[in-house]
């Protein structure tokens, strides 16, 4: 019999309203509360404390070796589920049976202290993650090689660049040897090259036959790595099945309520560790009299932003995704740097001009990344949605068949006769 | 289910060999083993479910994570010495300067009695356990709040957080003892045979600090304002403990009340074993009982509140 690795039975987690925001009470309030509640409850019998259910009725059966992607908007309960599995927070109802050693990575560099050296932090972080000293000794060289910090091992981490810090933190976590791994949006850190390395390592882990539970907004990663996908919405299990089906349903739901112009201030697609810097986005046709966007039109993407403090350099990445959530193409300020017209900036508007949009007719959403110096600051998935309609781009009255993909491109043809 | 844990092993009479909850082996049950009911879990499984009431100590887990306790304490020591301007010197200066000031004010000006022993030696003997207790409890009380971040991102035995911060002060205590040895040499005082009891006294000091430290640590997470009362509490405790005066100045009738304070008998015992001042068995006896009671309460209260830490931190 194939014993399950993780069995979640009717799991629920509730918070008393107000508890999460205000944290604990003061002793004085607690004492006053004791007197007050008696009086209050006497006059209003059956008064219930308002609860917020972060998770309710979740049941899952995960077999060893499965790679499960967990998707959902912000506040859907993904992080709460991972926290319960990691034993950081306790369920309110239901239970979980875990068979096998479980390690969780809810962030990189947990426990790192800036005053300690790289070497000292490797041991501290490894120990916190559950590794024995002997294990860390054994893997030490591999960890250092993965992080590429050989020369800086005995320097205090406070002198590391943010990139080095993140590489070292991930390197330690990447060498955990547990049967079950629970990972939460760890890919959000670092620059693109590093994210690729992280994904590569996670892929290796899945090939080793270990069970992985994986929360990410990076749809291609979830699609590529996962054998199964779970979609949470408002704390409940909405879908559980193969990645393609679940992800397209997710992408569809995500874009349904979106327009070409969106206020980004409380956007549900904002990644949980982002700072709310981007405030507004709009996709429009640059031609002033156009009614919509057609294939081959010149468009612009505008994003307004406001940073908490003046910055002297900002970067933007925009990814255009199709109705399945798969990225079609991306543009960014690293490749085509804008001409600098200011020294520091706090409030501004980004204008991204895209000529001759090569998209086939359909519905597309945008992922927006705002950052500075190789680190992401604000990331919003499915920020807005725009539709592209058919147009006579080739002058022949015909356009490619809908199954040709998301992009069209011109080609010229010759058919030459050959003699025997 | 009272006194249950979130970790259950198969009951001893289940007929299967009791596989230990090892963290480094692949977990397999015996082939053919049947699960008898939903409630029984096999060896090697962890059950995560809502707990209530008093919660048992998970000794296995503490043992598995034992290295972490050392790493955390080591980290606290390293950070303290890298971040403060005085660095290691603080471990020497705190007891030394305190002793000097107390000797001048309380020894000379006020003229407090010191049981036929030079006042500086008398007060230093009291400062060794007292400074450990005071620094330890203060650090433990705010340890959870200071490391909130850690508590919301990873699981490890929470008991280690305040315990490690207390443990870090053992280094200071060792330095004070060395300093004291020099002081004794300077005065030409030689400790008697009773010095062999010193390790037990040190152990008792650690447990007393843990008892109060763990309780305050748990209270501080639940009720934020408690952390501000700790310095005040420590000041009061210092005056009601015989740090600067001998226990003998408390009138006989009320002495037993003073002796309920575990630090009372303990400080007196330090003096007794090092300097040879009169032995006070009643104080030690009462103090030890309260000490152990506080330790047990502290640990269990901490465990009870522990599961809320990530939610309200």
Give structural notes:
The complex is a heterodimer of chains A (420) and B (313). Chain A has 420 residues and is of the alpha/beta class. Chain A has helices at 19-22, 27-43, 78-85, 118-129, 133-147, 162-174, 192-207, 219-225, 243-256, and strands at 6-16, 51-62, 67-71, 93-99, 102-105, 180-184, 211-215, 228-233, 236-241, 261-263, 278-285, 293-294, 299-311, 315-321, 327-332, 345-354, 362-372, 375-380, 385-389. Chain A has two domains: 6-38 and 49-252, P-loop containing nucleotide triphosphate hydrolases (Rossmann fold, 3-Layer(aba) Sandwich), CATH 3.40.50.300; 261-392, Coagulation Factor XIII, Chain A, domain 1. A six-stranded mixed β-sheet of chain A has the order 5-6-7-3-8-9, with helices on both faces. In chain A, strands 12, 14, 15, 17, 18 and 19 form a six-stranded mixed β-sheet that branches. In chain A, strands 10-11-13-16 form a four-stranded antiparallel β-sheet, with no helix packed on it. In chain A, strand 14 (315-321) and strand 15 (327-332) form a beta hairpin. Chain A is globular, with a radius of gyration of 25 Å. By secondary structure, chain B is mainly α. Chain B folds into two domains: 1-52, no CATH class; 57-312, no CATH class. Chain B contains 13 helices and one strand; from the N terminus they run E-H-H-H-H-H-H-H-H-H-H-H-H-H. The longest helix of chain B has 28 residues, at 119-146. Chain B starts with 44 loop residues before the first strand and ends with a helix. The model of chain B is unreliable at 1-40 (pLDDT under 50). At the A-B interface, helix 2, helix 3, strand 4 and helix 4 of A face strand 1, helix 2, helix 5, helix 8 and helix 13 of B.
